[in-house]
Amino acid sequence: MDELEEGAGLKWVRTTVELDDHIIVPNLDPVAMSIEPDRTLEDYLASLSTLPMDHSRPLWEFHVLDFPTSDATAALAFRAHHSLGDGASLLSLLIAAADPSKVLPTTAPRRVSTMKALTPRSPSSTGAGVMVVFTVWIVSLLLLVWHTVVDIVCFAATAISMLRDPPTLFKGPGGAEFRPKRFVNRMLSLDDIKYVKSVMCCTVNDVLLGVTSAALSRYYFRKTGESGKKNIKVRSTFIVNLRKMTGLHTLASMMKSGKENDVKWGNQLGYMVLPFHIEKHDAPLKYVEKAMRIAHRKKSSMESVFTNWSALMITKIFGIKAAASLCHSLFKNTTILFSNMIGPTEQVALYDHPILYIAPSIYGQPYALTIHYQSYMNIVKLILAIDEAQFPDVDGLLEDFVESLRLIREAALGKPRIVEECSQEEHGHGEA
User: Fold this and answer.
1) Which of 44, 138, 363, 380 could form an S-S bond across to 188 if both were Cys, CB 3.0 to 4.6 Å?
2) Rounded distance between C-alpha atoms, residue 361 and residue 364, angstroms
3) What gap in Å lies between CA 426 and CA 272, rounded to an integer?
4) Closest CA to 385 of 397, 399, 368
5) Sheet holding 23-24: strands in order across?
6) Residues 95-104 as b or e (16 or more Cβ within 10 Å = b)
7) Which of 81-95, 117-131, 332-346 shows the lowest mean pLDDT across its residues?
8) How many Cα atoms within 13 Å fall on the side-chain side of residue 145?
9) Contact 432, 338 (CB under 8 A)
């Protein structure tokens, strides 16, 4: 966009990339880098959330922060405009640039029917078996239609401000999108999460939803001192990857043109409005059980597909500003932005420098709290983008997540693991 031209609009143009405009090595205080390196890194990233990008050139930047922190010997911050692609696209680009020889996580079709075929034991039972399967199929279809209609109505009511979340500790104030965001993270054990998954016969995503609900509940009741009998429902905008094949894909396959490409580059995502319950449970596994029920209900709906389609239609008919305004209204009337994404199962290196962690996040939305989970090797990075004025005790909030996972993992000890029964179900549910 030519920002000097009055009324200029955005447009795609071929351009020559000047690397000096995109590779940035900031001049930071050496004393601060040596005394408080972690805080210096956080402060610098927070400052980026207040700086607009230059629309007269390609909307991406690499910030090289060449000083050691508690996690690594150096950091590389990649800032990109969301119009360039979603998390799956950009992560696949990173892997291709870093170490294209690495094997990406095995993917499977997103939706696999969970109805098991009924094998007739005798010719006389064939007709009865077919009728049972047909009846189950009809009931499932009717439930899918009903749940989709209900979710679409609630989604539309939220987008036009008829439904709004009440003010809580987690709800962003007016103008939260213009306030600086601080990006903080903690490392969680993927093995612990998978252990709970196998015990509960659920998905990794279900476990993360349960951990999040438990952590937010711990934080809320610790900060307010209110009775644990209280049950508060807050809603999150849940980002869903709509590609038919979940997981990561090679950059070449994503860049392949054609309508038949199921993993194409870009923003292939939709939204769900997902509730979180702020409440106290004596049994930590109750948080996972409730998350499983909520997630199972949402999986029996086409809400995310509808939101993607409606956004495309509104953009084509009314323009990008109308679609952005509706999206902003949805965000403003919910409490949390939530997402998780699968990463490489093996370590990758960038020019022989091993990448120790990957921590994606986002800013510019009217939220005081955004929650991302990113798996990589045998860890899961929890990344929070927070309004520090609203969450001054951010270390306490991070520890609530760590402690919630620990308690849920301990509660799962001694219970039988039923991995075999879950193996087929796991492939039916992709990552957010």
Assistant:
1) 380
2) 11
3) 20
4) 368
5) 23-24, 60-65, 75-80
6) bbebbeeeeb
7) 117-131
8) 5
9) yes
Query: Is 82 an active-site residue?
Result: yes
Q: How far apart are CA 211 and CA 190, in angstroms?
A: 13
Q: What is the DSSP letter of 172?
A: P
- For domain 123-426, the CATH superfamily is Nonribosomal peptide synthetase, condensation domain (3.30.559.30)
On the CB side of 189, CA atoms within 13 Å amount to: 13
Identify the H or E element spanning 47: helix 37-48
Give Dmax over CA atoms of the chain in angstroms. Answer: 84
Number of residues in the chain: 432
Q: Choose between 266 and 229: higher pLDDT.
A: 266
How is residue 418 written in tokens?
């039923």
Contact criterion met (CB below 8 Å) for 224 and 326: no
Token couple for 419: 């991995």
- The domain ranges of the chain are 19-84, 123-426
Task: Supply angle C-alpha 261, 263, 265, rounded to 5.
Answer: 100
What confidence tier does 113 reach under pLDDT thresholds 50, 70, 90?
Answer: very low
Residue of 297, 281, 273 whose CA lies nearest to 215: 281
C-alpha 286 chain-centroid distance? 23
Cβ contact 255:265 at 8 Å: yes
Residue 302 backbone phi and psi in degrees, to 5: -105, 25
Beta-carbon contacts of residue 178 (< 8 Å; ≥ 6 apart): none
Tokens 């500790």 correspond to 169
Dihedral, 333, 334, 335, 341 alpha carbons, nearest 10: -140
Tokens representing residue 22 in the block: 């995109």
171 and 360 in contact (C-beta within 8 Å)? Answer: no
426 contacts 200 by C-beta, under 8 angstroms: no
Count of CB atoms situated within 10 Å of the CB of 298: 18
Q: Give the bridge partners for 186, in sequence order.
A: 382
> From the CB of residue 420, how many other CB atoms can be counted at a distance below 10 Å?
9
The whole-number pLDDT of residue 426 equals: 45
